[in-house]
Amino acid sequence: MARVLVVDEDPWTQRMVSAVLSHAGHEVELAADGWEALIRSGQATPDLVITDVKLPSTDGWAFAATLRSRRDTADVPIIFLAGFSSDRTPGDSFRPDHDQLLEKPFRLEQLETVVAKILGSLPPTPLSRTASLSPAATAEPTRRLVLSGQLAEFAVSSVLIVLELERKTGVLSLSGADKAGRIAIREGRVIRAQVDGEGPRKGALAVYELLTWTRGRFEFNAGDVADEDEIGASTSFLLLEGARLQDENKRENN
What we know:
six-stranded antiparallel sheet; 7 helices; alpha/beta; five-stranded parallel sheet; 11 strands
């Protein structure tokens, strides 16, 4: 396990990078700007720093230069996240034999690979899980857990957007206080959904209910999904319709 300091003012990037690193077994510390990161790195020396090039108080290159000037952090490897073409020209603090430059938007697999390369470790061992939507699905190949977290911190809609952008295939499992739900996804598109418990629901209605969950956990297990497409609508449509239904329900209750 390594201590990784993530420096980025974007909560979305913080959550995604933190999820990948935590799943790999690393200890993650977050900072929103370079000055906060310098304080945290002084309190506990990180094994790896991941920083956006654009920071609110100082840029990533200046932040890295300050790290290099300190005895305790002079040799800490850095992964620079660059979002615009003007940011992709490494500064003097970039060491090609020691650091990495990762262009935004990046894929989760890219981040995993770069982190593993820098830390000199192998990718995390896949977890043997067989999340399924039906008894027939238990014959599917073992899936690999690639994303998990608390619904209070990461909304179901946000998870589905990420999976759509990444064109992921697998099963998103959600657990609430007294219910459980599953959404089958193929190349980022929702193809089947089900909510268990009292008053079970399936299809688009299940998706709309799951979008309202704000407590519990979620896990996305990547792997082949052999289910038929029972939704027949894009993920974007489901999210918009789900938001419309929630707004309509609020107006009726007020």
